[in-house]
Known about the structure:
Blueprint: E1 2-7, E2 15-25, E3 32-40, E4 47-48, H1 50-56, H2 63-76, H3 88-112, E5 138-142, H4 165-170, E6 186-192, E7 198-204, H5 206-209, E8 214-219, H6 225-228, E9 229-230, E10 237-238, E11 244-245, E12 251-257, H7 260-269, E13 271-276, H8 284-289, E14 299-303, H9 306-312, E15 315-323, E16 335-341, E17 345-350, H10 355-366, E18 373-377, H11 392-405, E19 409-412, H12 415-421, E20 428-436, E21 442-454, H13 460-470, E22 479-488, H14 502-520, H15 524-531, H16 550-561, H17 563-576, E23 580-593, E24 602-609, E25 615-619, H18 628-640, E26 647-648, E27 652-653, H19 668-693, H20 699-708, E28 714-720, E29 739-752, E30 758-768, H21 775-794, E31 825-830, H22 855-871, H23 886-892
Parallel strand pairs: 5-31, 6-19, 17-18, 21-22, 25-26, 30-31
Antiparallel strand pairs: 1-2, 2-3, 3-4, 6-12, 7-11, 7-13, 8-12, 9-10, 14-22, 15-20, 16-17, 16-19, 18-27, 20-21, 23-29, 24-25, 24-28, 29-30
Protein name: Xanthine dehydrogenase
Keywords: 2Fe-2S, FAD, Flavoprotein, Iron, Iron-sulfur, Metal-binding, Molybdenum, Oxidoreductase
GO molecular function: 2 iron, 2 sulfur cluster binding; iron ion binding; molybdopterin cofactor binding; oxidoreductase activity
Amino acid sequence: MVAFKQARRRDDDIAIVNAAINVFFKSNTDRVERIYMAFGGMAPTTVLAPRTSELMIDQKWDQNLVERVAESLCSELPLSPSAPGGNIAYRRSLVISLFFKGFLAISQKLINAGIIPEDVVAPEERTGCETFHTPALKSAQLFERVREGQPKYDPIGRPKVHVSALKQATGEAIYCDDMPRADNELYLALVLSTRPHAKILNIDASKALAMPGVHAFFCSKDLTEHENEVGPVFHDEHVFAAGIVHCQGQVVGSIVADNQNLAQAAARAVKIEYEDLKPVIVTIEQAIEHQSYFPDYPQYVEKGNIEEAFKKADFIYERTNRMAGQEHFYLETHAACAVPRDTDEIEMFCSTQHPSEVQKLISHVLSIPCHKINCRAKRLGGGFGGKESRGISVALPVALACYRLRRPVRCMLDRDEDMMITGTRHPFLYKYKVGFTKKGLITACDVELYNNAGWSMDLSFSVLQRAMFHFENCYKIPNVKVGGWVCKTNLPSNTAFRGFGGPQGMIVGEHIIRDVARIVGKDLIEVMKLNFYKTGDITHYDQILETFPINRCLDDCLRQSHFYRKRREIEEFNKKNRWRKRGISAVPTKYGIAFGVLHLNQAGSLINIYSDGSVLLSHGGVEIGQGLNTKMIQCCASSLGIPIEMIHIAETSTDKVPNTSATAASVGSDINGMAVLDACRKLNERLEPIKKANPNGTWAEWINAAYFERISLSATGFYKMPGIGWDPVKNPNARMYSYYTNGVGIAMVEIDCLSGDHQVISTDIVMDIGSSMNPAIDIGQIEGAFMQGYGLFTLEEMIYSPQGMVFSRGPGTYKLPGFADIPGEFNVTLLTGAPNPRAVFSSKAVGEPPLFIGSAVFFAIKEAIASAREANGFSKDFDLQSPATSARIRMACEDRFTKLIDMPPVGSYIPWNVVP
């Protein structure tokens, strides 16, 4: 009796296909007496395979039987192309593969019992029946020790615990929806479009309004055309759909009622009549076919002369590939709570990364000035960019209802609502043509990048720009032409996500460098080093790389990971195992630090010192769990020379620090930290005479004396990032980015060629993050970013209907990495002796740069697949789309079993994210 299960994620997940085989043999023989085979995932209920079982009776248990059974199972268990769940070819192949795994497992038992000879199953095939198990995890975290002579209470450079860690771990931390309900409070539910592209003919809310406890319905008719037009940059969106809906999940109206259940039931009772419009565009390919682009695109960035360079190149190679989107899946969904103050004031509690933007748009929608709106954020339960701009979908209807009804109103989206409404990371299509020498030196590259923006622009133009500026990753290409298109489709508007187009661009460079190494037949590491940027080189957008330690990062990571030893061991392992293969890959990263829009690179702070010596610190950043408040307290404590316990940050609030930038682009610590230091400098200057008069006094004594001498103990700070704002025409001498954060990751994986499952055996990362202000937080950010990148490139798959309906609307259908997906060995090292003069306390930004290193797993998987394909007589040159799900891994490992399944050849495009 044997059983197998294959799921999208190994732990805590339902099966895609599972199988159980119960076989009885004639006494002490290898002939089948009777057999029962059951399969799940091939029909609405578990199914048997009686016809195939019948043909096995009295047959010899050997490889010939496997061939007959495989063919019989293919015909006995067909699957319609329109069967629910998709992945038709993969599921059909799993039936055969899981039977074969059962055959191998049972054969091993018969061999051990001495019933059949060992040569029935070749030694290299025997591990095919094994399944992965979570190993005993181990890890190392290495960082620079605090410099000698630093005062013991100076927290800079020390691994300090996140100031809210205990509250968050115990569940005591208060988030937006944890706030106690106010007297007379109402709940708001959104009315959403059910059509992807349609004209609204009529909205009938009478049935909903007739329900007891329902107080109001709002739609576009309750706002002027100007008030209804909103958006983070371009006002091309609406608070409520006006005349036409552009995607399923677009907000058409809102219901306000006594409680959540009632409001949601009433929202479903609102009847909307539509007239469908054509076309409905879901994929990038459809957008290209219909020329559905936003105005002013395509845009190009050029350097050198690619035509001449292509003429001189020894090799020219072209390829097309894709990278999927990714759901933010923050633990706290979008939430907002508005409370009326006085007759024309509003206080907004909002789960947003950009309180000032919410304040500004509420001002616009309600036609009241910003100074009558206070937007507050204590902490967010994750954001990852998803709460930079899309929070307006909830915040603006809540603010409107509160202002019109003069009652507190709140809304927190359910997970399915959140995933329907708020958009994802931008999917990308990229095409490249690369020219290079026989030695593997890249001389020219022509790249086309297309991103799927959804129905509105949001921040898609900036996402595309960063992708265009990061496509070459760490490799110098002297002749470049990069074209970019922002595609308009009938999907929810896609938005910022950790990396902000950087990963979508850099994966192009990593595909290119591997194509070059494969074609010229040279070692990948050698080709990487040959093409690496060096200090003093200039990018294709004219920025000088003043320091570029990528070679040092790579060498340290190769040494730390024992790369060359592992690679030799992998070669031996792959020779000895037919159905399990291993791969190892190194991935470097270069991430530019700054907002792409000049005016956002600024920050403010406010420090109030009270007469007892305690300090209240406010700054423009939002605590999203990333430890920003902890670092700001460290900056303040170091500058004022006091223990961190004397400093408190209450919340982020627009009435304390105005005109804040979004907490995004990884610059939260950089700009807010410098603003905090500026405020501290002013306070230190005011306190200097007091300290001179009483040099042996305590902090409390100095503050008390300052108070009685009527010295101001409140100061604001401000910082603007210098030297940036590059524009090829208006400001060609400025920088695009303030500096770069670099790093290298090496991942080793093992794949199961029969099921498509995989396991990350080890991961080693070396990151250059300058002089870390808090190694504990920074290493945590690196580990978290890697795992989120790992999910992006291997597990997380958004599925849509041909009409643009999001099918993956929760953890049942959308798979995040789990505990079993953590690398068996996970080592992170911070590069030492690499201070950064362009940021606070010589540190570097750390939030987004490590995410792309998760692609090391993707490329290691690709190496393992290539080994499997080579062993089966297939080309090592094949396309693997991201994410490398179990289905894609299995079908790329072509073998005699997959050949029994009717499917398109490897490399042909299957619209993986659109299913019937």
